[in-house]
Design a protein that fits this description.
The complex is a heterodimer of chains A (159) and B (270).
Chain A lengths: L6 H20 L7 H20 L3 H24 L4 H7 L6 H12 L3 H46 L1
Helix pairs in contact in A: 1-2, 1-4, 2-3, 2-4, 3-4, 3-6, 5-6
Chain B lengths: L1 H10 L8 H18 L4 H14 L4 E7 L2 E7 L5 E7 L7 H17 L3 H13 L5 H18 L4 H20 L6 H21 L6 H12 L2 H12 L3 H29 L5
Antiparallel strand pairs in B: 1-2, 2-3
The chains are: A mainly alpha (159), B mainly alpha (270).
Chain lengths: 159, 270
């Protein structure tokens, strides 16, 4: 367990909070939502870290964490009656593969093409994983809520 | 319900040349255009325009949107018809404006106020500013600085990345319209790469890679790429394809900018 709670992990948690706030501000999110953006960013990264820690690979980590951030966003969008994007964009920032892109470029410069391809694959894999996670949740969400409203209407009709 | 709404038009002040359908569609498109500019999903934009038109009694609504164009046609029960095209210029993400448009559309669908009032609401929403200039700069610095540390840099790297973030914010501010988006991204990446290498040469940071990663995070269209794939998987093939191509091109531009900077500084990094 001591491997899990390392000092870099805590640094990353704090920084993902600050980074999410920063991006929320770049996207001009209203001030009252900034704490939620920070919370979402931290939790999303925590999910990513946990999944990767247990050796499931970056794709699964990206998928699970972005699915989590999408769920988080859908829930708070429902509570706060605001568009989902307000929460979704800042929250999923900590898993965007910025470092993957950098290592791809750096390895191309160093003429280490094997490593460059590897990092390109990682970058694309994470990108695809984020997309998968983000897509799955709204589909399920609308399915569930659609079913609830449908059943509610049928009940009313029966009465 | 519909006839009541049509009666409401009769009583209000017709400022749009007495063409209710024209005016209604124009306002609905104003809302749709605003949302699209702020970075809303295609489906949401189409859905909102349709809801607004239907709330005001349109019997027939056709909407088609891609990131740069909205095509729409409506027919009122009395046969009045209007079709309009709206070219949408990209306006950068502004989620609080998106939220305001969302609120307006929600309100007017519920209460259907006179169209002139809606016009006024849209105008007010566009005028209202939430963020002063210094916060714009602070947000860029905060984002790039904290991600430089996030990916393993020291606090010195974080500060250098934050300063480069300020430069990005400046470039974003002065090149608002008319500048090719990819040229801007390439320029930002080049400047970012160059400044990172030079900062290391000057002994300001510890690890050039971490500084660059922090600055790349601002430019990389990671979330944009995901929303593009989301559009694609939701069935908006045209919009999804366009956005995907755009995301790939800007990623290439980022790679190009940083590569060029690294080559120029030569060995500054590796």
């Amino acid at each position: 367990m001591s491997d899990f709670f390392t000092l870099p992990f805590f640094t990353q948690l704090v920084m993902s909070a600050l980074g999410s706030i920063g991006f929320a501000m770049i996207y001009r999110v209203a001030g009252k939502y900034l704490p939620l953006a920070a919370l979402g960013g931290v939790l999303t990264f925590a999910v990513y870290y946990t999944v990767e820690f247990f050796g499931l690979g970056v794709f699964a980590a990206a998928t699970f964490s972005s699915a989590f951030s999408a769920l988080f966003s859908e829930i708070f969008a429902k509570i706060k009656r605001a568009p989902v994007s307000i929460f979704l964009l800042p929250c999923s920032i900590p898993i965007v593969p910025g470092s993957g892109l950098y290592y791809t470029i750096a390895n191309f410069i160093a003429k280490d093409f094997a490593a460059a391809w590897h990092y390109l694959g990682v970058t694309l894999g994470i990108g695809l994983g984020i997309a998968c996670g983000i897509v799955v949740v709204p589909v399920l969400w609308h399915l569930i809520f659609g079913a609830i409203t449908y059943l509610g209407k049928r009940k009313k009709k029966a009465e | 319900m519909i006839s009541k709404n049509v009666q409401a038009f009769e009583s209000d002040n017709r400022s749009f040349a007495d063409h209710t359908a024209e005016y209604l569609l124009c306002l609905a498109l104003d809302i749709g255009e605003g949302m699209l500019k702020c970075g809303a999903e295609i489906r949401r934009v189409e859905d909102t325009i349709e809801r607004v038109c239907v709330a005001y009694g349109a019997s027939h609504v056709e909407i088609f949107a891609i990131p740069s164009v909205i095509i729409a046609a409506i027919r009122l029960p009395d046969g009045e018809y209007s079709s309009q095209v709206r070219r949408v210029k990209k306006g950068g993400n502004n989620l609080s404006l998106l939220e305001r448009f969302n609120e307006i559309s929600r309100n007017i669908c519920r209460t259907t106020p006179p169209l002139a009032e809606v016009d006024e609401m849209i105008r007010k929403a566009k005028e209202k500013k939430v963020y002063p200039k210094w916060l714009h700069f602070l947000s860029y610095a905060l984002a790039s600085g904290s991600f430089a540390v996030f990916f393993g840099g020291s606090w010195r790297d974080g500060i250098v990345a934050a300063v480069i973030g300020l430069v990005f914010a400046l470039i974003d501010l002065i090149s608002l319209e008319g500048v090719n988006q990819f040229a801007k991204t390439a320029m930002q990446s080049f400047v970012g790469g160059l400044l990172s290498c030079l900062a290391i040469r000057a002994g300001l940071g510890d690890d050039v890679g971490m500084i660059m990663i922090g600055t790349i995070m601002i430019l990389i269209p990671g979330v944009f790429f995901s929303t593009a794939l989301r559009d694609l998987l939701c069935g908006d093939f045209l919009a999804g394809t366009l956005k995907t191509v755009q995301a790939i091109l800007s990623t290439l531009m980022i790679a190009f900018g940083y590569l060029l900077a690294m080559f120029l500084v030569g060995g500054g990094i590796l």
